[in-house]
Amino acid sequence: MLPKRALAAFRSALGADRVFDDAATRALYASDETPRRVDPDAVLFPASHDQVAALMRVAFEHRVAVTPRGAGSGNVGGALPAPGSVVVSFECMRRVLEFNPVDRLVVVEPGVVTRDIDHLAREAGLFYPPDPGSGDYCRIGGNLAMNAAGPRAVKYGVTRDYALGLRAVTGRGEEIRTGCRTTKGVTGYDLTRLLVGSGGTLALITEATLKLLPAPESVATLRVCFADTRTALDAVARVMRQAVMPSALEFMDQRAIDAIRPTGTADDLPVGTRALLMVEADGTAAELPRQIAALEAALDGPGLLEAKSGFERDAIARLWAARKSLSHAVKQIAPLKINEDVVVPVSRLADFVDFLDHTARAQRLAVVSFGHAGNGNLHVNLMVHPDDADEMARAQRALEAIMQQVLALGGTLSGEHGIGTEKRRFVPQEIDAVTLELMRAIKRQFDPHGLLNPGKIFPD
Amino acid sequence: MLPKRALAAFRSALGADRVFDDAATRALYASDETPRRVDPDAVLFPASHDQVAALMRVAFEHRVAVTPRGAGSGNVGGALPAPGSVVVSFECMRRVLEFNPVDRLVVVEPGVVTRDIDHLAREAGLFYPPDPGSGDYCRIGGNLAMNAAGPRAVKYGVTRDYALGLRAVTGRGEEIRTGCRTTKGVTGYDLTRLLVGSGGTLALITEATLKLLPAPESVATLRVCFADTRTALDAVARVMRQAVMPSALEFMDQRAIDAIRPTGTADDLPVGTRALLMVEADGTAAELPRQIAALEAALDGPGLLEAKSGFERDAIARLWAARKSLSHAVKQIAPLKINEDVVVPVSRLADFVDFLDHTARAQRLAVVSFGHAGNGNLHVNLMVHPDDADEMARAQRALEAIMQQVLALGGTLSGEHGIGTEKRRFVPQEIDAVTLELMRAIKRQFDPHGLLNPGKIFPD
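YS: structure for the whole thing
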């Protein structure tokens, strides 16, 4: 348990109304979207950069581990409290410190909701491209920690590509500033992109300067039905080989389609549809028809049942709501979702999904796959019953085989969810021992006592 | 001087025909584009990753400093030999190890010429966006070390945005592998982007996996003349505020225009032209006219004298050749060019150039400015006579004032040339002491004996 002196020091640094150690609060902050729970020793709600620095100095002095947390919407245990740690929730740090449409940037605190940044930008004809499925409630601090992405990444890139500069607090409680306010800059090492994706293990981000882009005038959506998974993924590879870059290229397998049926958006699919692509293009209203024609031409091929365009704005919103509901909707299939966010080269997607089918059959498991196929990034969900020990064992065997295959195909363990607690045992299969030790050595420079989000990313 | 035993060990590791310590070779590798010379103790020409690892193990054992070098075309002394060091030239490592158009990537050794990557990609309808002015002869290893860019960065980003993964050798002679082969990946810390822009101070890059993009079908160029600098830069800010992203947005001041007159491309400029913009758009032939119209609308305003489009392919090539000749052509004005590659927010460009004019007058200096205005990235050249001690002193005073102003405007010391030896004394004005010490600490993890490109980036 947290020493009384440490608790008192946190209260003295932040004020008593920003430090809670009652059982109810601790239970509320015990988990993220993974099926694990660890009660933290206390939950802290700093209101400013200075308070974050102050609490970290207390943590450093008293050797208290810190678990940073945005909305707790992560999928890999990144915000799962380390035993004996205090959670630092950034919920109260949600100020927009600067909005500068002329230089196309915004400076925000980490507790700002991702979608709110996009909405603010749109008021000035700009937008914030990264659009994680949890965008309506996740916080930008969590997005930066995990290098979050979403459907638009296929055209616009990931959170890393929009972080110009950061203000942060190291594991010693010291302030650092990284990067710059301009779209180019090579002064010193790129600590901005080192912090982005580091899962809160190097520093606590307290301010982020984010790049914005001009908002596209119009968007058009294609819903494309295929007779089977393989032909759908071959079509993805064809789309990614030609010149018109879609602004989204999403895939759903048969089970994912079944999971969205309650939304009504799958009622009019052609008979025999076993795989679905959602393809989006953006640009000016004048050029969109040509883009859509090019995409339709690339999509055309074996297995194509229907490519439907011309949806109204409301219908498009319903399609996307259905797609974004998938992450939760699949839980109807079985109570526990083991969610793997893997990436393979686009040219190997079809082979990879064949392997998944084979593995699911061999281990008698329900597997649902969907995701950002244009980036080769699939969310592979093993749907299991946690009380069924035999099924859980088979799921673990499947997981091992899937990760091995991802790496054998030239892929990577995580595309946008990060490593957290859930994938760290696989990390040595992707990263060699020398490189991994270098990462640990870098961590020690930021956080010599290992207080920042311990138990994440690195294998034991 | 290099101990005989170290020289023998290098010869034993690489073969005698890859290690030279004769005076002529050492003199050839004594400088880059800066006006300084330091003869290295020897020059090494490794032919493979394994040879780089072998030579670095020798350097580690014998505590020999290493100066990595591509084409020596850098502007900041990044390849200037540290006293007592050996130059490692990557000229002989110029294999394309893999070209994979389907997954839009290429794997290259560091000695490959940048333009050759672009040419190879175009054979498959793709392109490699970063286009430094020295692209015809600079090497991709140097581009990665300095995070090189060029005109296309305004739309397509910089070298950092195209490096997917790296193979490299640390200061201990150990191999590391960073990143992945896919467009998304968040497994472990982002060492790829930590190495890019680190100027060869963290590791020697031996292989790079680079992302390619679909080549645009067509390009159109506007040459836009203004009555003065301020109105031209106000027009740049207007262009960057609207939705059509130019694929280049280059600025030349009066002296830069005069410097390209010998090329003949300035013969038909309207009388009274004192500032020039080159604005490019790319896309399909069908959509280009609309893009050009939008850009022309944004450019229109006070001071506009002429916006000329419809150049033939050859004329465009001549315009760009003239623009790219500037870096050398300005040397006609005075024998020494003190070249500053600074960045300010686009909205502050006009104020910054006003300040430059004021400073040039106050210090009685000839200053030539041109560059990538769409990114706020100007190449400010103080043209001086090195034998004129008073002028050199005034140039140093001007330089101090310019750097202070850049930072006061929210800019950064370098956009694409890097810090090298030339700007390191200014670094503490941009990067605070804690952050800078963290960078040094990171360097020690990669290179505990400080053997990799010493004397660069960090102030003494």
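YS: worth flagging: The CA atoms of residues 146 and 417 of chain B lie 6 Å apart.
IM: good catch. Also The longest strand of chain B covers residues 203-211.
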